[in-house]
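request received
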Amino acid sequence: MINNDKWINSLPNSNKHLEKNTNEVNFDKWTNSVPKKNNTTSFKKYTFVTVILISGLLFVSALKNQTRNLQKEINKLETNIRKIQFDLKQANLDHNVITSPENISLLAKEYLNINFETYKKSQIKMFNYKPEDLSVSQVGKKQKIIEQKSKKFSKNVRKHLAKKVEQKKREIKKLQELYSNPEQIPNEMKTEVAKKIKQKKIELKSIYNKPGEILTLERVRNWGVVQVVKVFLGIPVVPGR
Amino acid sequence: MKKNKKTIKKKSFYFEDYTEQELTNNNKGFKIIRVSPNRVTFLFFIFISLILIFSLKITYLSLSSNKDLYNKKNNKFFSNHRRDILDRNGTVLATNVDLYDIGIRPKLLSNKDKKNLLIKLGLSFPKLDLIEIKKKLMKDDFFWIGRRFTPKEKDQFWLMGNKAFVFDLKPSRVYPQKNLFSHILGQTDDSNTGISGVEKFFDKELSVEEKLIDPLKLTLDVNLQHLIREELINAKIHFKNIGSAAILMDVRNGEILSLVSLPDYDLNKRILLNDSVYTNKITLGVYELGSVFKTFTIAAGLENNLINTNTIFENLENRLTCDKYTISEHDKLPSSLTTEQILVRSSNIGAVRIAQKIGVEKYKSFLNSLELFNRISFDLDEIGTPLLFKWGKCKLATSSYGHGITTTPLQLAKAYAILSNGGYKINPYILKKKKSKEEGQQIISKETSIKINSMLRKVVSLEEGTANFADIEGYDVAGKTGTAVKYSSQAKLNTFVSIFPSKNPKYVLVVMLDEPKPAPNFVYEFLPSEKFPNGYKYKGEKRNTSGWNTVVVAGKIIEKIGPILAINDLQASKKY
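response:
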């Protein structure tokens, strides 16, 4: 065993008293350096911070909520826009299919009984074409030009016109033949025509004999109203015959 | 002591207390945990970086204007994966729709369910091959019922409420005009990538994401295309031809207004097209086109100042031999003809004489300047290359009237456009350009062009001309017929190139009938002439030359498309 005292005493003497003084901590000095607790100010501070924090949280959550609602609405609207765009595209596609020339010609063949004729180049005129004034002095000149132009009509047009004229002539001839031989006309038609002729004759006679009866006030008034309406509508007052 | 330790653990403020505790712990045999400051720094760095990354992402998301982040769900309504294709008037030629491939997982169905499903399918989709479906259902392996079902049809399947159905959404291409542009537009594969036609040639442009909203506009016109196609279909009824083609081009700039090749096919029905009859006859087909080459022979002579329109060629034989080739006239012609008459009456021997005057080199270089032998650059991949041959005296003779020399109808149209537009070079195109009119290099003089136009007009307008049936009132049509005989079958390939109006050419129309037959039952309508002032109708023609079929078809086409073109020109002009 080691004898502690022996070892300790073997050390050189030191100024223990001095060392004690130097190493001793001045408690008062340290304690005074610590700030004193102020209970009232810290409470206020914490309350203030807590209030700010809570109100901030509430504000942020409200703001976030509002933003989310707005975003939802925007999304909804954008979805609607896209839906409409999609529908529009579909409708456009349908329109293109329905109005494709192939489809139209098929439908025309099925439902229309018209034989379409293609336009001739001469039939296409410029839209800004302005006809010249046909003043009295120019009428003669224009007449000549028209005559010259009619000579220049294409053979096709002339052929077409000639055909039409011939057809009309044939029709007139037929009518002439029919009326030149009244015996061939059926009896029913004859009686009807005879009745009409009689009626007209009676009417004419009455006009010549008693013109006053025909020109009644009521009739004149009606006639006047009709003429006023005609003037208003731009229809010629005198019957256009 | 225990109390003291607890107080130290909880409240100690002094370093000494801890050292004391450490010592006591040490005495008990506990290890001292020494944390390296580097490790702490490292962990601190990781956490800080994570916080930074997340805060940056949050900031980015809040500031980002990229709406797609929010609207991913909405995209199902509008899946545009490829640009639309429009014609010159804005009519849709190709667009995208969402279609569905529908399959079945039979394992999920009992035998009773399978029977019920078959009944439901039969009722809702009578066109489905139910026997085949039944066979596949019994095998219990997954299979596709069909592809490219419309959303409506998909809904019908969906409403059956069967869990075994599998729906696969596929954005697909549809073509509202069906057959009308089959040879031009081409098709896309299952992954919506272009595999032919415009879809292939402009594949990159069509799938550029930034331009998806802007459609690709072509120079073609739906109405013109339909009218031309309709006439070609009608021609088949009368002339029993196996195929036909037509191209309408603006001679001033090379804009193609219509390109038809028959037979065609419905682009919406995906079928394998291995048969050669489905080739694009205008761009890919390489043909010997016959007498339409005479115009080039005469133009070469005029351009080289070797002949004039009035130059007389005397003592023209009716038959000529060169090596193995026998050259003869198609009809009895006078022995003396002027240059103009050679073209009007389509004299083979006359053309040979002119070519002999020109010589091989000059003639060859003239045809080369019209780019008749090179592979033409065009807005499609389906382009034919004219066959090469060795030039010689006999080759010069035969090629002068278009035999033994090949090219595509597209190149023919281009060459005629150059001859008629005043002589400047143009390149055909179908993609609408902003600047459509740009004058190219002068190939032939304006004088030659005017002379050629006037001669071509006489081919149509004069009674002895070969193309009277195309003399449509008001359109001042000029043109040249071409009748060629196929080597393989001795069948004919008839062509008619028309230019109108001849005084100020605007359009070139090439009509080609493949293997037409004589049409004795067809009623030919002759226009009024000196002999027949009212014109006359004729039936029973047994000849099968171009003048008796392609010219008739071209005349009908011009009669129909003429008003549209005239109005279009009127609208385009400043006078409108």
